[in-house]
Amino acid sequence: MFHLYRQTWSQPTAKRLQPLSPGQCRVHETGIKMICEYILQDGRRLGVRRVSSIDTAFVDDLFAKLLFKDVNGKKVERRTTVNHAMKTARSAWNTISRAHPGVFPPKNPFERMGLQSTSRETPHATFAELAAFRAKAIEMGHPSLATGALIGWELLQREAHIFIRFMVDHYRPPSRPDHVYVINYKTSTGSWEPLLNAKGAPLYPVLMAELDAIKQLRPTGGLMLRRDGSSQPWFGKGEMLTQVQRITKKIILAAGLRPELTFTSFGRHGGTTEASASGLTETQLMQKGQWSSTAAMAHYLHDDDEAKQDAQMKRIKRRVRQAKRK
């Protein structure tokens, strides 16, 4: 089943316009290995069993046994990884059963497992922390990371969008000089975002100034953001962004910021939380961040005192207005 499933990764499907990215393939491979290499009581690998012998009771038991890993004698939960493994198996079963009707068991035991996400929350930065990070990044000779963080904050983008898929011709091309094309890396779709308001004033003055300057340095096109000094891509083999994460951590520590912050804290998580606190509607947030559901968007909205304070102040002001009418 998994062998046949791998063969579909390089092909577009009804749900996916483009092949899977290297990152998505890595996630699937991790899940496949976790499931197939599981050793059964008879000493065989689970990967050699026929799919027809697997039912919901077996899958539930498998999940429970994979959930904890022994680390130095202690059981450590790895819920996110196991969840991904179950989702990979679910997707593989659905994909292959549709391609081989009548010869493949139609009932998917990996469906409706009720998977729960980990309670770990990605830390989000404040606008002041974003400014401090950007200033230190420029000081340390990494202005492209400073610009990348601002792209993430303003346009609610993931690292992969910014450093792997953002091309020069996506920004103010001759056919759309007042727009930027924002790609959804996961779905390979995108939308043209306006850069000016109805009166022609810049909506992102700082970001536009930086991108305009970078674009002048890229007369032949290609990636918009490259490593400072070498002009090499920020991503490495398999589109890994290890260098972005490593240097970002150095900048965070040098700036005296919270050590738990990551590049994502300044981008999609921090920007989305600020956007929500600024009063954007649910629909506006979903359109700007290109989320397909409110459930997916909820992972990027974090508790924010300012938003809650503002909400309560609105209630208090309403009570005052009502009291005056009486």
From TrEMBL:
SUPFAM superfamilies: DNA breaking-rejoining enzymes. Residues 314-326 have a biased composition (Basic residues). It comes from the Bacteria. Residues 306-326 are annotated as: Disordered. Keywords: DNA recombination. GO terms for molecular function: DNA binding. One of its GO terms (biological process) is DNA integration. This is Tyr recombinase domain-containing protein. It comes from Bradyrhizobium macuxiense.
